[in-house]
Amino acid sequence: MRWQGQKLGDVDAAALPGLEDRSSILRTVTTPEFAGMTFHEVLSKSALNKVPGASRMPFTWTINPYRGCSHACVYCLSPDTLILCADGRQRPLRELEIGDEIIGTEVRGVYRRYVRTTIKARWSTRKQAYRVTLADGTSLIASGDHRFLTDRGWKHVTDADNGQRPHLTLNNRLMGFGTGADAPSIDHAGAEYRRGYLAGMIRGDGMIFHGSYSSPTRTREIHRFRLALIDDEALQRSRDFLVEEGVPTRTRPFAVATSARSAAEAIHTAARSHVEAIESLVMTPADAGRDWYAGFLAGIFDAEGSCSRGVLRISNKDAVIIDLIEAGMQSIGMPYVVEAPRPSGVRTVRVTGGLPSRQRFFDTVRPAITRKMTLEGTAVKTIADLRVIAITPLEGESDLLDITTGTGDFIANGVISHNCFARGTHEYLDLDGGSDFDSQIVVKVNVVETLERELRRGSWRHELVALGTNTDPYQRAEGRYKLMPGIIETLAASGTPMSILTKGTLIRRDIPLLVEAAKRVPVDIQMSIAMYDDALQKAIEPGAPTTQARLDTVRALTDAGFRVTVFLMPILPHMTDSVEAIDTALARIGEAGAVRVIYGALHLRPGVKPWFMQWLGEHRPDLVSSYRGLYPGMSAEAPKPYRQWLAKRARPLIRMHGLDGRHEDDYPVRGTRPMPAFESTASAPAQPMLF
Questions:
Q1: Angle at 26 between CA 22 and CA 28, to 5 degrees
Q2: CA–CA separation, 416 vs 148, rounded Å?
Q3: Interatomic CA distance for residues 157 and 132, integer angstroms
Q4: pLDDT tens per residue, range 547-575
Q5: Which whole-number Å values give the CA distances from 553 to 502, 592, 690, in the listed order?
Q6: Quick one: which H or E segment has residue 351?
Q7: How many other C-beta atoms lie within 10 A of the C-beta of residue 551?
Q8: What CATH code would you report for 191-372?
Q9: Which of 70, 157, 361, 478 counts the most CB atoms within 10 A of its CB?
Q10: 356 sits in which H/E element
Q11: How far is residue 430 from each of residues 66, 72, 353, 540, 679, measured CA to CA in Å?
Q12: How far out from the chain centre does Cα 296 lie?
């Protein structure tokens, strides 16, 4: 077999959106032996993966030496889509990179809240796009597969070509704050905005002094300008803007940090010409326009503004300043009220309209201080009219982008948008779920060395490690990379029990190794065999070994002394759930020597469901309506009545064939009993199969 390798420099790292941050690409490999497949060899910093505490899985640790992925993004948006970043600013999707901090959401208590998250992956595609128009003027361009959060849950932009799925319809209400109609056009790099900002900042928080000092010998004139701030972002902007106006300043410490106060720095000048120039710059021009007022609002907000619990306020005692704030709000079309004066004489201008107005204010005037703009921790409360009023297909195909984040979502044009669904980044997908699932394979070539290092840690408690819970460790690539022998030997040498689930016959190669390992630690082996009709098996699992080949592997493992469990899952409604089909399957499993069978109904995982419904439409169109009834909307599991009906049919047959594990203790002592949580289908994990 000839393998053609390419250096990292020849590989587009974005082609591996699902590659975890802890790995690095060595090379990409293709071979005629595996036509249509690409192997990405990586160095991973971890081998052991801890199962989340909330999981129902009967094990805590897993190892996945291989990982399937696809660089064909499914859920995508226009590159011009504005994404809410962690600093409160919105940036076009095209400008974002892996590692950037943005805002996503999480449900905390009774509220969904805006939280900080990180971009884990980013990639592009080209496909049919749609324009989604909302009643407040917000417009979104997305693929038909993209999902947005509505007040009735997540919905795709359009229905699936084959198979019904929740999708947007007119008057559906999206969640978030929207962007509304186009904001006023402001030249944030122009002189008018710059001078407006300096006017707002310096009149709000600066000091200008002219005076004289007399001594017995002479009178000395004094001219002073000082601007002291704890936020370097605003201080730096003010310094830069003054330089652009020909006024240099010096920087010095102003106040040291205490337990109750942050440190502050100040810019200052004592040159008369510079101080007089600053005085002139901060005066209100007679012909002040929108750009000047936008700059003024940014400056006065940085100096005197606040944003607490999503409410934006600017306070000042000077009536002229309050009048200028009001004029500025009017110039940019911002709704506001002026609150009654406090006893101190301070008055407050408060922006009304909730988060939509707040975000529009920030996007329009662009203040400098980040800490005042963040939404982090704020509850998601939709005030804007985010009803869908139109979904329009765009001509041809469009260039689209998408990202994966730590929270599984992000804020796109002010509405909550679902993560890009990539088969390679979804933690519970199997490689044989369809033709696209096994076209890109990530190979952790250093997994054995990494595992050895992790098992030597003093904190390792020798808990059961499961292999095959995500991707098959004995898939075809194992024939080339031979990672499993090292993993088996390393686990056994460290005294760590292991469980292996596979549908690959390549495990027969390692039977001698497994026998030796079982002398030192418990070794549990499970074979996944779902279909016992050759034509059906070939149609659904074209890349997997035949049913008979896997049954022969069960026999070989049994003859070697192992007590093998067979996963008869998924059982397909109306295809493999008849008494005859189940009885035939159990008879063949029993003849192969297995001691236990675990069964389960078809589980249509997100992302796999459209593929399966498409397959069903092509091969069994007569069953499409029935499956839509069994798996409506986003439902992944078969309904409870069907599962109860299946249990009444399958359990007596399993007992009749002696495959309920009752006689395991009479078997040669090899391995362990199947894991407790596998005792019933109610607690069985998602199938290690196709769907």
A1: 115
A2: 6
A3: 8
A4: 999 999 999 999 999 999 999 989 999 99
A5: 11, 8, 20
A6: strand 347-351
A7: 23
A8: 3.10.28.10
A9: 361
A10: helix 354-365
A11: 11, 16, 47, 13, 22
A12: 38
User: Is 401 within 8 Å of 79 (Cβ atoms)?
Assistant: yes
Centre a 10 Å sphere on the Cβ of residue 195 and count the other Cβ atoms it contains: 25
**Which pLDDT score, from 0 to 100, does residue 54 have?**
46
Cis amide prior to 570 (ω within 30 degrees): yes
Inter-residue contact 275 to 223 (CB < 8 Å): yes
pLDDT of residue 17: 40
The full DSSP string for 614-663 is HHHHHH-GGGHHHHHHHS-TT--SPPHHHHHHHHHHHHHHHHHTT-BSTT
**For 82-180+384-418, CATH number?**
2.170.16.10
From CA 422, how far away is CA 74, in angstroms rounded?
7
Residue type, 271: A
Edge-to-edge strands, sheet with 336-338 = 305-308, 311-316, 347-351, 336-338
Task: Kindly report the backbone phi and psi dihedral angles of residue 54, in degrees, each rounded to the nearest multiple of 5, phi listed first.
Answer: -80, -5
Q: Which two tokens stand for residue 574?
A: 């109306």
Nearest-angstrom CA–CA distance, 508 and 512 = 9
The CA distance from 158 to 50, in Å, is 36
Low-confidence ranges of the chain (pLDDT < 50): 1-22, 54-56, 69-74, 162, 421-438, 664-691
Radius of gyration of the chain (CA): 32
The answer to whether residues 343 and 137 touch, using CB atoms and an 8 Å cutoff, is: no
Q: Which pLDDT tens digit goes with each residue over 43-86?
A: 888 899 887 654 445 567 989 888 653 323 346 899 999 999 99
Specify the 3-state DSSP secondary structure of 250.
strand
